[in-house]
Amino acid sequence: MTTPPTFPALPGQGWSVHKKPVFSTRVASHVSGREVRAGLYAHALYEFELTFNGLDSSGEFAGLQAQSLQILMGFFLTAQGRLNTFLYVDPTDSAATGQFIGTGDGSTTTFTLGRAIGGYFEPVSYVTAIFGVTVNGAPASNYSFTAPNTITFAGAPIAGQAVAWTGTYAFQCRFLDDQMDFEEITSGAWQNKSVKFRSIR
């Protein structure tokens, strides 16, 4: 599996940043007034919206990173709008430390890497690095990683043993639009007030 490109981190990114968890629920109403509800997503998808207050196109604005306009625009063009996927590293949600992911039962060898947010646990979208895996608190090395987010042990962890991992991850995303609006606010300086994309599974 080829690793998708990573969304560029640019110094001209400003505030605010929007992050919106999204579920999909089908609701069927009965003549009695009762409702039947069915969740269509096992886990939330996330919509992001970023703002770039300053982008350099001429190399004159060193603090904005030289040709950051071309970097961002080129990234969008390479993705071909909504067509292709990329990775977004959310600075506030990109690392797991000693994260519990399951309990051995003596037969299961494959575990999905995930993270907890509050009291909610879900698989991470795309693992970018694994720094360690433990079984019952002891470091494990008899496993292999399969992108985007699973590990498989050569031998199943013993029943009752906790499996945990430490590492980093990103959100695998697609742009929400096939067009992107860049505005030149002064000679060589540009801005983009709304870059929208959404995670995928």
What would you say this structure looks like, in words?
The protein is mainly beta and 201 residues long. It folds into two domains: 13-89 and 173-199, no CATH class; 95-171, no CATH class. 6% of the residues lie in helices and 52% in strands. It has one helix and 16 strands. The chain has one helix spanning 68-79; strands at 13-22, 25-29, 35-39, 45-56, 86-88, 95-103, 110-112, 114-117, 120-123, 126-135, 138-139, 143-146, 150-153, 162-175, 183-186, 189-199. The strands form four sheets. Strands 1, 4, 5, 6, 10, 11, 14, 15 and 16 form a nine-stranded antiparallel β-sheet that branches. Strands 7-13-12 form a three-stranded antiparallel β-sheet, with no helix packed on it. The longest helix has 12 residues, at 68-79. This is DUF2460 domain-containing protein. Pfam families: DUF2460. InterPro entries: DUF2460.
Per DSSP E runs of 2 or more residues, the count of β-strands stands at 16
Alpha plus pi helix count: 1
Helices and strands, in order, run as EEEEHEEEEEEEEEEEE
The helix content, as a percent range, equals under 10%
Brief summary of the model shown:
By secondary structure, the chain is mainly beta. It has one helix at 68-79; strands at residues 13-22, 25-29, 35-39, 45-56, 86-88, 95-103, 110-112, 114-117, 120-123, 126-135, 138-139, 143-146, 150-153, 162-175, 183-186, 189-199. It has two domains: 13-89 and 173-199, no CATH class; 95-171, no CATH class.
